């Protein structure tokens, strides 16, 4: 497991651990998985099932909450506690669970329609509060369960059942949105890259606060090929901009010596831009630092993703900073207030009596 | 001078002024003084939805009515005996409620050109003969206040702000109220601003002294304490009692409260109150919207806490989908609807009972939700405990239907003994409840989240952290017992009926209805629910005082109805249902019991008036018995004791 956080991970402090050896099978429920053949959700499910044992938690202390959509069937397939809730509301429900119980590891599974359309409000408020939960946002840039309408991440001009003349909606960039909502952990990964997916999940689980992980996920039925540029072996070197903490950001087809052809530098306008490595000094390349408090550079990086058909996108952890969580602070207030109270029953008697009473004999 | 002292059995006073004049505080202090004195009382605050409507205008008028008596009373009173009007707009707005012969005390200070025009007066009503029907007292309350507090060096504006305390002092003298509680209150309230504190206390005393010395007020009134059953009492508003009831439900069940909510009039005080009591383990989550509020509360219930959400009618509309999810997942949840005038934004600060059918049916699918309603401010406590009992015992969302009148109204409340409250056992599941055969042919224990208790039909509540009981629930239809997704037609039919049966079974746990029929000869029953209890009770007393027989019963449970309701209805020739809506309980009673009830419906944003209701009841009695003459009515009532004919 790859994370920069020390054990036990701050994101999981308070969650009881297990000494028993666990395998992916322990996290597989008896329910038949029912996504379409070739769906990217299978790969994510498999990765999650085989990754969860690495956390070493007691299985009964893990809760998955989902909304509505194809990906939201996820909890049924995991042998943990779970709730398949209603459209868009999973972050709100998870906020209640995470605040009520420090001893639970809380996960939200959602999609681009669920999280960014009907549930947009709950998503941004969970992130600004920094409630301790990990949100897996499966982005296939289409509505699957309702059979193929455009989504809030579909490219402009998208022709679908509901937009025969092409969509005129401008899409959300989920990473930009999360950074705008001041999320403390924002990352992007790909369904088909099991290794990277697992690394990002590990870092997200280790983070205390809301972790937003956008997962590019292919829908083979209604939006097949949406991510071809970053999956096709011939094009992916030019399409994936890997973000690695402390490393200069370089990508693109390699030359014979194995050196990438492109890099990222700060632009004159204050953002970042892609340059040919032949045109700049190595020292001028932007060194990735997800740990800076100021989200400006992370936001600039997020803008490198095409709003239209995807040709290029940064992949990795954009931002990972520490900020007190809502749930920790809410519980602290209760602990502080409870310090002087030992018996609820006598406290209740004095509470309801108040200070202005009279006695009738 | 020696003043005459007159005995009265009850008085209704209305303090009215601009919304910045502190009328709610004035009324509240007078109430506390009367409570401390030992009168029975009921209050009715009435304030604009605007925080500060333009000063001096009719929309900006705020008022507080208090009814206090030497006997037990049930309502804040129909129309005031005394109106205190702090400006022309307050006089104009409230005059229509005043009967000839009643008293009006007016602060003359603002009765000048511009202020009269703002209130819509062409001339000065204090100078023409438009108020000759009333016992009018014109006093320069503001001027005397400013003079009295001169020594504290306040600005003229700040000095004038103490005029409400001058008025309170005057009224306190007039009705012989004890002053200590108000003095102590002011000392505490303005402890950090000594000059304001001293000015207010001085104005209060000056008002009292003015009453005692002036010749303008020749009579002091005495209203003796009311006999009440032995016990310790306090004055309490409905929202406060409701919040305390939730805390009591939490203590009695051992479940920490998680309140997920969004501010809305007139329910916000429940949030304000609970947020003060974190020491009971209470979490208050002010969410981004109504939907997130209930969502987080349901999440907390799933996690093993007592999920509560509080709102008013518009908020219920937004929460409906999540209430449906709570019905489907069968988790405890208390949903508080402090009703206000609707539809849409409606009348935010006024009262109404028009959310009953929304509570009953306002969701997609067959989605039964138990409904509990308090009948008086203090009763909000008991009703909240009952809502918690049902939610936890039956694993269901419960709708607690309060209203604006209960929420802000107050009454003396006998403080209950904690030992008398029901003990609520969450009975968390801790072990597997079912056996199945694995692929090796061995018998293994497993957990079925929808295997029900035979008596209550409640499903087990297994909370995360319980080993071996991992399970998934959600909004999709569940297979009976095992709880996995099921699209089987027969299973769906069975589950729909079972969820309904579970709610119906709550009736088995309810006490028999209490029917108040003192003579035992009544032919007419008045059936009510919620805050109309007071006006209905007062109206029935009037009717009985006039020599007629009428029975009254009041529903705490609107869903399910008590098991004996059908039998009770059958015992009367006619049933009247007074409601602050267009007949919502009437509709339910007609549908379920096929009884042709007579509605009495007002939607004025105000409580029903007992006198008007008494007339309507009298009319129904006379048409039912076919007799208008009181003497003959008695005779015929006796003669036709066995007759069940309804004459309309």
Structure description:
The complex is a heterodimer of chains A (361) and B (648). The longest helix of chain A has 16 residues, at 40-55. The model of chain A has no long low-confidence stretch (mean pLDDT 95). In chain A, a hairpin with a 5-residue loop joins strand 9 and strand 10 (272-276). In chain A, helix 1 packs across helix 6 (194-206), helix 2 (90-100) runs parallel beside helix 10 (326-338) and helix 3 packs across helix 4 (120-129). Chain A is an alpha/beta fold. The N and C termini of chain A lie far apart (72 Å). Chain A has helices spanning 40-55, 90-100, 112-118, 120-129, 174-180, 194-206, 228-231, 236-239, 296-302, 326-338, 344-353; strands at residues 62-66, 81-84, 105-111, 133-139, 185-190, 210-216, 240-243, 250-254, 260-266, 272-276, 313-320, 357-360. Chain B is an alpha/beta fold. Chain B has 21 helices and 25 strands. The model of chain B is unreliable at 630-648 (pLDDT under 50). At the A-B interface, strand 1, strand 2, helix 2, helix 4 and helix 10 of A face helix 1, strand 9, helix 9, helix 11 and helix 12 of B.
Query: Span between N and C termini of chain A?
Result: 72 Å
How large is the share of residues in beta strands of chain A?
15-25%
Which bin fits the share of residues in helices of chain A? 25-40%
Task: State the end-to-end distance of chain B.
Answer: 61 Å
- The low-confidence parts of chain A are none
The percent range for helix content of chain B is 25-40%
List the helices and strands and how they pair.
The complex is a heterodimer of chains A (361) and B (648).
Chain A: H1 40-55, E1 62-66, E2 81-84, H2 90-100, E3 105-111, H3 112-118, H4 120-129, E4 133-139, H5 174-180, E5 185-190, H6 194-206, E6 210-216, H7 228-231, H8 236-239, E7 240-243, E8 250-254, E9 260-266, E10 272-276, H9 296-302, E11 313-320, H10 326-338, H11 344-353, E12 357-360
Helix pairs in contact in A: 1-6, 2-10, 3-4
Chain B: E1 4-7, E2 10-18, H1 23-37, E3 40-46, E4 61-69, E5 82-85, H2 88-94, E6 103-107, H3 113-118, E7 135-139, H4 141-148, H5 156-160, H6 163-174, H7 180-189, H8 194-213, E8 219-222, E9 231-237, H9 238-253, E10 257-261, H10 268-274, E11 283-286, H11 290-302, E12 306-311, H12 313-329, E13 333-339, H13 356-361, E14 371-372, H14 379-394, E15 397-403, H15 404-408, E16 410-414, E17 434-437, E18 443-446, E19 472-474, H16 489-505, E20 515-516, E21 524-529, H17 533-545, E22 551-555, E23 557-559, H18 565-570, E24 574-579, H19 584-593, E25 598-601, H20 610-625, H21 630-639
Parallel strand pairs in B: 1-8, 2-5, 5-6, 6-7, 10-11, 10-12, 12-13, 13-15, 14-15, 21-22, 21-24, 24-25
Antiparallel strand pairs in B: 2-4, 3-4, 9-16, 14-23, 17-18, 20-22
Helix pairs in contact in B: 1-6, 4-6, 4-8, 6-8, 7-8, 9-10, 9-14, 11-12, 17-20
